Amino acid sequence: MDKANDKERYLKSSPFNTVGGDTKFTACVGTNGGYTQFTINTGFKDAVNTLVGSIDNYENCADPLVYPILFCIRHSIELCLKEALAYIKYIVKIKSKNATFRKLMKASKINAKLEERCDNCNLVISKGMARNFDEVERFKRKKTIIQNRSIKIKNIMDLLNKEIFGDGEREKYTHDIDELVEDIIKIYEVDDRIKEAFDKLLPLLREYRNIDPDGAAFRYLNDKNGSPFFETKKISIVRIDILAIQFEEISKLFDELGWFLFYITKEYNTFTYTKALSRQQIEKISKTLPSPENFAKKYQK
Q1: Domains contained in the chain, number
Q2: Of 165, 191, 218, which residue is a domain's last?
Q3: pTM, 2 dp
Q4: 279 belongs to a structural domain
């Protein structure tokens, strides 16, 4: 490989949307490759592990890397909190608008069947599966009727969505970890299991809740007033080994919380709950009841 020519060519190329080169250096972003917020968070977590590992292997020094490490840790925490908050808000909203949400789910199922029928019509028309011209025309008319029904159902779904979720509430724009934690605490009692899972994180998050509300402290030497950040906080030493161990536990607990919230969101979508009780609580109560054959005997006494 002619490295001199390669360098000249690279200096004249854009790093964005330029295909070719060594695939290990090619990152798929945006809508390419299923890129999500989870992918971004994974990147920040991996960056922490890579940087800490380079210090542990004497490849780099702690002093210049402490800022990038701290920034990646606190930003990963911020992303995890925003994801958890979005899940919990969703559960709060569908519980508070239970009847409307049931209508939305029913309309969604109807629309899915309509779209399936429309796809079948397209298949018959495009693949020449109809026996004659009249049958083709019949499937075209049928497709039009189905599409019109689907449009009406989608309009109903839009109205129901707005009633439950508003006009598409945007993700809260804040970098304040303490504010995000408090927002979760205000509503996490919607299900006792969420409170139990999230409370495990609180002791480990205490160091990050008030140290950097603007998300800027670990990017610049001075704050917006020109005061040296760490000196203002009277911090002169940062133990990166302690940071790493704590972040490993924080990441583990956030992973568990994320999967749990994903699971119970699916649970709530099945409507197996009441206004006051979750499905788990209903299951516990059911186990305390006597068997059907003994139920009448017990409560007739």
Answers
A1: 2
A2: 165
A3: 0.83
A4: no
For 284-298, what is each residue's pLDDT tens digit? 666 666 666 666 665
Span 241-252, pLDDT tens digits: 999 999 999 999
Same domain assignment for residues 87 and 222: yes
Question: Based on the domain organization, do 58 and 191 belong to the same domain?
Answer: yes
Between CA 86 and CA 213 the distance in angstroms is 20
Task: List Cα–Cα distances, 236 to 78, 182, 221, 239, in angstroms.
Answer: 24, 29, 13, 10
Residue partners of 272: CB distance under 8 A and separation at least 6: 279, 282
Question: In which domain, by residue range, is 154 found?
Answer: 99-165
Residue of 254, 277, 301 lying closest to 84 (CA atoms): 254
pLDDT at 169 over 60: no
Are 94 and 165 contacting, i.e. CB atoms less than 8 angstroms apart?
no
Please choose, from the candidates 185, 245, 244, the residue with its C-alpha nearest in 3D space to the C-alpha of residue 209: 185
Residue 158 CA to residue 104 CA, distance in Å, equals 9
